Amino acid sequence: MNMKHDYNILIYGYGNPGRQDDGLGDALIGRLENWPDLNGYEQVTVDVNYQLQVEDAILLQDKDLVIFVDASMAEEVEDIAIEPVEVDHRASFTMHAISPGYLLAMCRKMYGNHPPAYILHIRGYEWGINEPITDAARENLDKAWNLLKEIIREPEKLDANHAYMTAKKVTG
Amino acid sequence: MAQKVTISPVTRVEGHGKVTIKLDDEGHVTQSRFHIVEFRGFERFVQGRPYWEAPVLVQRLCGICPVSHHLGAAKAVDMIVGAGAGDGLTPTGEKMRRLMHYGQILQSHALHFFHLTSPDLLLGIDADPAVRNVIGVARSPDYKDLAVQGVMMRKFGQEIIEATAGKKIHGTGAIPGGINKSLSLEERDRFLKGKDPLNADTMIDWAEAAVALFRDYHQKHREMIDGYSQFPSNHLSLVGRDGALDLYHGKLRAVDADGKKILNDVNYQDYLSHIAEEVRSWTYMKFPFLTNLGNEKGWYRVGPLARLNTCDFIPTPRAQKAFEEFKAYTGGKPDNMCMHTHWARLIEALFAAESIKELLEDPDLQGEDRVVKGTRQNEGIGLIEAPRGTLFHHYRVNEFDQIQMANLIVSTTNNNQAMNEAVGQVARREMDGQKTITEPMMNAVEVAIRAYDPCLSCATHALGKMPLEITLLNHNEEVVDRKSRHTNGVQQN
Fold first, then answer.
1. What residues of chain A lie within 8 A of the CB of B134, using their CB?
2. CB pairs under 8 A between A and B
3. To probe the interface with A, which of B488, B491, B492 has the most A CB atoms within 10 Å?
4. Is A168 near chain B, with CB under 8 Å?
5. Which CATH number is A9-167's, of 3.20.20.70, 3.40.50.1450, 1.20.1250.20, 3.40.50.2000?
6. Global pTM?
7. Which helix or strand (DSSP H or E) is residue A137 part of?
8. Around Cβ B40, how many Cβ atoms within 10 Å?
9. Which long-range contacts (CB under 8 A, 24 or more apart) does B392-396 make?
10. Cβ pair B463, A74 in contact under 8 A
11. Do A100 and A52 touch, CB atoms closer than 8 A?
12. Is B295 in a helix, a strand, or coil?
């Protein structure tokens, strides 16, 4: 299949699949895994981990666009939401959980620049050990899946007008 | 008016950790308590599961040191399949596991020092939090490479883990009785001769330079480093059969604050005869202690400082040289200075880097004899020195191979009393007579906690959460002041 655009995109999901809805990032990457290749978007790569790690800054350096995918417990996230990631130099209380903004800062420190990056929040509700993703969160996962396909097909739309995407309510 | 200061690192899954500091009517600190994450429910969760799943399942405990749990459980399960208690594996099996473990130690210690500790030390505990980070450190010409070195050492360690465990998440490398893959020659050569900086020699050089950096800083700031938090305690860790620093297998040794052996190289299979856990009403996390001394005098520290206090020597040359200097500073006696944990951590990182190179040069890693099995047992106990300290895994299984009982004592639990002591010291110094909580006060408490590198936010993460919250309450439990720290380090009022 022919490549449909030449955007070098990284989709990076994170969260613990052993902790119920915390596994939403992992689940979305699982759905996505072969989809880009099968649909002619060979420039799209995916990665997944429990948490973001400082060395992930290396993955960012040659990308045109990065989409982080994470479960969210924030009430302001009704189902899904996407927002740009801003550079953030500040380390957290421990380094056990670092922010996407810190990764951008590290990437800039190491390579002089960083790609535009966004975070796709998927609302989760329950965080029990080794329980399945809740039905409500799975509905949000479906919405995120549809949005992600849309972004991969037309990344310039996100790049040019993220505010539109942020405000957009994505339904099945 | 009596007041209570509460510091709450909140995580959405692992439970709540917080510091509560009580002030009397005159504002003097009268009590401090450190409540921290514990793994409620996990031991029950593994009950009924086949024992061979344990090394994979337990990685769900922790997103930061899953390798430690993977190997701790694997060592316990080795016993169940009759492969012995940690030293019955084939050379390939044991050395591949050691390589995995030292990859984990290197990356964990490097991350902690370069990205977490160096800003506190090199910029100052009371520096503006907006610049108190490794990128702020890198603005100094003397330290401009630290951030990149931290990232690359971490990457090197992670790649070692991936090559030995199979994958980054839910690795499957360690299996009952051994290991499921050997190291290919291509993988070996990549780690030994890889393009700079991702090769073993560069890792050793950088780790040694980090030890020197700490030593130089210490010489200039001796009073602060030595006096920040120090108190006498017992120290506990594994040591090799010959008394060497050994983070994978050995005997259990404890020394008191003066260096007297109070647990003399006992078999950790008997840990229940030597260690008990006290329950206190104000926290779910237990307080382990040595039974021969009782709960008042028997509490101990674990982790890098404890390990260098218990071992007799380090079996790699450059780390041994650094160890000799470390020991000389206290005249050969145990070092009870909390901030010296960072010094010890860097010496261990050097030891890990040297050990990785030694292992990579060993042809046993390419061996094909990877698994041993013997007579099936119903019980297994595994012990390993995780980056943060001694980690116990204990399982009992039934005739259907299902886990009936699991008992885990994690490093952070082992350090419970020590962290309480450290927080109490700093709180008395920083918060006595205070009515409001300033950012430097908050960070001063954090620095004491961070020295132990506790696992506060393992296994999950949450944008929008407040991992650290300080609440000032009066004697009626009314909020007088509250400060929170976001996951990205931002303090909010």
1. 91
2. 151
3. B488
4. no
5. 3.40.50.1450
6. 0.87
7. helix A135-153
8. 13
9. B392/B72, B392/B268, B392/B271, B393/B54, B393/B58, B393/B69, B393/B72, B393/B73, B393/B75, B393/B76, B394/B76, B394/B271, B395/B46, B395/B51, B395/B54, B395/B73, B395/B76, B395/B77, B395/B80
10. yes
11. yes
12. helix
Q: In the structure encoding, which two tokens stand for residue B108, read together? A: 């964990």
Q: Is B63 on the interface with A (CB under 8 A)?
A: yes
**What are the residue boundaries of the structural domains of chain A, listed by start?**
9-167
HSE, side-chain direction, 13 A CA sphere, residue B39: 25
Alpha-carbon distance of A19 to B9, in angstroms, equals 19
Give tens-digit pLDDT for A89-127: 766 555 556 789 989 998 998 889 999 999 999 999 988
The alpha helices in B144-279, defined as continuous H runs, are 146-165, 185-193, 200-220, 222-227, 271-274
In Å, how far from its chain's centre is CA B365? 27
Please give the residue of chain A at the shortest CA–CA distance from B130.
A90
- CA dihedral angle for residue B444, residue B450, residue B451, residue B456, rounded to 10 degrees: 150
Report chain B residues whose CB lies below 8 A from the CB of A61: none
Check CB contact of A163 with chain B, cutoff 8 Å: no
Question: Given CB atoms, is B457 within the 8 Å cutoff of chain A?
Answer: yes
**pLDDT on residue B343:** 97
Query: Which of A50, A74, A102 lies nearest to residue B459, judging by beta carbons?
Result: A50
Token reading at B88: 């019955």
Q: Strands (DSSP E) along A15-166, which ranges?
A: 44-49, 65-72, 80-84, 117-123
Residue showing tokens 């002041």: B481
Q: Is the pLDDT of residue B12 over 70?
A: no
Q: Give per-residue pLDDT as tens, B327-385.
A: 999 999 999 999 999 999 999 999 999 999 999 999 999 999 999 989 999 999 999 99
Query: Where in chain B are the domains?
Result: 3-35+417-492, 231-336
B33, β-bridge pairs? B20
- Is A93's Cβ below 8 Å from some Cβ in B? yes
Q: Which residues of A touch B111 (CB under 8 A)?
A: 54, 95
- Residue A1 is encoded by which pair of tokens? 């299949």
Whether residues B66 and A50 touch (CB distance < 8 A) is answered with: yes
